[in-house]
Write a structure and sequence with these properties.
The protein is α+β, with helices and mostly antiparallel strands. It has helices spanning 18-23, 73-78, 122-139, 174-188, 201-206, and strands at 35-38, 43-49, 54-55, 66-68, 90-96, 112-117, 150-156, 163-168, 197-200, 216-217. The structure holds 7-methyl-guanosine-5'-triphosphate. InterPro entries: TIF_eIF4e-like, TIF_eIF_4E, TIF_eIF_4E_CS.
Length: 218
């Protein structure tokens, strides 16, 4: 799994160089020029390419130890390969530093995920904006007192329908899980009639059919 190391110490924001200005049509390419607030956590992106059965390094710096603010979220997004451009079979994830994007990780093994399942048409209409919003929820620590329960997020690009999920650390933490689910659903702008489910990784890992039972729904 490709890991990008993140900076941990604040750096001053130097003005953009002439080279950076011209590189992207007068827009500044380096998000660190817009960095204002320290992030609470360090986050590590990774990706998995099932076709070639090899891991590949994500070719971008996503986030250092800072939040990029204002209208420059777009700078951040420009540094992320659009999910809809990933080949089917690929996964892309962002997890807190020290947590692997696997059920077996100590922080995941008692946890589960809020799962957003997309139909095929939604790859074009929703996948990229849902994934961006998911990333912003993570690095913005959007779940109030329950953000500590968040481990990371995964997007699975699949021919049968793409999936996006936020993984949390403990499926028995009812208050945390349901709060995260409610906020997440709202942030994605899903209408009330759409129901999303939370499944424990243990259930997912041992499922016999094609679906896993929901522990919670919002
Ligand atoms: P997937 O990639 O999460 O979803 O799991 P996909 O491809 O849509 O398949 P489906 O089973 O959800 O329809 C694919 C397979 O990868 C799973 O069935 C597991 O065998 C394996 N797998 C996925 N994850 C996230 C893990 C993991 O964390 N640990 C282990 N050991 N296997 C995993």
């Amino acid at each position: 799994i490709g890991i990008i190391s993140m900076e941990t110490t604040p750096t001053p924001n130097p003005p953009p160089t002439e080279e950076e200005k011209t590189e992207s049509n007068q827009e500044v390419a380096n998000p660190e020029h817009y960095i204002k607030h320290p992030l609470q956590n360090r986050w590590r992106p990774s990706s998995f390419d099932i076709d070639s059965l090899k891991t590949r390094q994500v070719n971008i710096l996503v986030i250092s130890n800072f939040v990029v603010v204002g209208n420059c979220w777009s700078c951040l997004y420009n540094h992320i390969q659009l999910s809809s451009n990933l080949m089917p079979g690929c996964d892309y994830s962002l997890f807190k530093d020290g947590i692997e994007p696997m059920w077996e990780d100590e922080k995941n093994k008692r946890g589960g995920r809020w799962l957003i399942t997309l139909n095929k048409q939604q790859r074009r209409s929703d996948l990229d904006r849902f994934w961006l919003e998911t990333l912003l929820c993570l690095i913005g620590e959007s779940f109030d007192d329950y953000s500590d329960d968040v481990c990371g997020a995964v997007v699975n690009v699949r021919a049968k329908g793409d999936k996006i999920a936020i993984w949390t650390t403990e499926c028995e933490n009812r208050e945390a899980v349901t709060h995260i689910g409610r906020v997440y659903k709202e942030r994605l702008g899903l209408p009330p009639k759409i129901v999303i489910g939370y499944q424990s990784h243990a259930d997912t890992a041992t499922k016999s059919g094609s679906t896993t039972k929901n522990r919670f729904v919002v």
